[in-house]
Amino acid sequence: MQVLRAADHKRMPWKNGGGETVEIAVFPPGAGLDEFDWRISTATVAADGPFSSFAGVDRTLSILSGAGLMLSIEDRAPVTLDRNSPPCSFSADKPTSARLLGGAITDLNVMTRRGRYTHHVRRLEIPCGITPSPDIRLVLCNQGKLRVSTSASELTLDALDCLILVPHEWGQAALSGQAEAFLIELRANQAVV
């Protein structure tokens, strides 16, 4: 199990220059915005405007804090997202814009390159368990303190810390504590493995 602490996340400008993103994890390691196979990040959205476009990438957006936003994606009815909404998945190469519903928000972005990886994001109900999987799994603590216990170790994730569970290197994991968390699952295309 690898822990990525919030203090070590990489800060960088948005691809369109409209704000700042905080990169939590990227693969391959060190890949740029046009080269990643998958990328996990957060961003603070402080004004209405367009999203960066990523050719050949699928994206899932979740609200971590703030009142929420209205997301307009080409060819779809506008979607309202807030802290209680399920994550919203869409093609990152479709023109997309956001309108804030009541001040700045912080969001979670999960992106995978089509044909290389697919992903699934869900909010976790704590306490819960996570079973072993052939997929790469990441647990992001959004708020509070999240305890993660396996047969081999126990650790605590603080706000915006992220745990990477590498396939075949861990057993059953139990999650507990006063926390909000997300589970991110990344599946490699058979041609990538």
Fold-level CATH name of the largest domain? Jelly Rolls
Q: How would you write the strand order of the largest sheet?
A: 2-3-4-11-6-9
CATH H-level name of the largest domain... which superfamily? Jelly Rolls
Radius of gyration: 16 Å
Distance between the termini: 20 Å
**What is the level 1 CATH name of the largest domain?**
Mainly Beta
Main sheet properties: 6 strands, antiparallel
Write the CATH architecture name of the largest domain.
Sandwich
Report the count of strand segments.
19
How large a portion of the residues is in β-strands, by DSSP E? over 45%
Name the shape in a single word: globular
Explain the overall architecture.
This protein has about 190 residues and is mostly beta strands. It folds into 2 domains: about 10-115, Jelly Rolls, CATH 2.60.120; about 120-190, Jelly Rolls (Sandwich), CATH 2.60.120. It is about 0% helix and about 55% strand. It is built from no helices and 19 strands. The strands form 4 sheets. The protein has a 6-stranded antiparallel sheet, with no helix packed on it. Strand 2 (about 10-15) and strand 3 form a beta hairpin. It is globular and about 45 Å long.
